[in-house]
Write a structure and sequence with these properties.
Ribosomal Protein L4, Chain: A; alpha/beta; 6 strands; 2 domains; six-stranded mixed β-sheet; 38% helix; 244 residues; elongated; 8 helices
Amino acid sequence: MPSKTTQKATKTKAVSHSKQLSQVQKTHKLTAPVYDASGRKTATITLPNSVFDVHVSKTLLAQAVYVYQTNKRQQSAHVKTRGDVAGSGRKIYRQKGTGRARHGDRYAPIFVGGGVAHGPAGQTWNRSLSKQMKKKAFAAALTIRNKEGVVAVVDGLGKLEAKTSVMVTALSKCSVPVKYGKVQEQTLVLTTGDESSVYRALRNEPKTHVENAGLISTVEILRYLRIVIVKDAVKMLEKRVSTV
């Protein structure tokens, strides 16, 4: 058995090592180039580690996708019970003397044309995640895309002419190329919501989706293979995952 002095020394080393790791994590800055509409690198932006450099849990991401897809299920399954079937409520035969079972109207579940006994009626399949789980899954999806090298930060898209050809040309110059598949137009553009010209110019592009950074979902981040973020929208993404 190790002595108490040895145990204390080991604990001290472990604490100092954890402090060093925390200091390294605090000083580590994640940067990315900022491109203008012509594709030139004009500046460098510090990306928040809480959004683009977090621990990725594949289990949590799978759960987030499952909840999203389940909640899109159309909840229209409904059958009529014996109280919903339209028809006469007259008693079909007298209560006693026939030798048959006692019955009221003919819309009991055992009769043809009657109601359904235990069918689906008003069922819901909604699922939910806690706020912390949503934030962690959202940051994990952006972290995956950032590590894949398919995230680009752009400044000046809102100043361009609101024409599809102009905006598509700008996106092809300032966004990163996709390394796999012939999907050069599968791009997600995250804006602050004030760039109306970007939305008007790209709304007819079938493989390009423009969305407010404050409303984008985890599934949409995973769906598109290229992400273009307007410079001012980076703060919106950081605000979404903040715990305050």
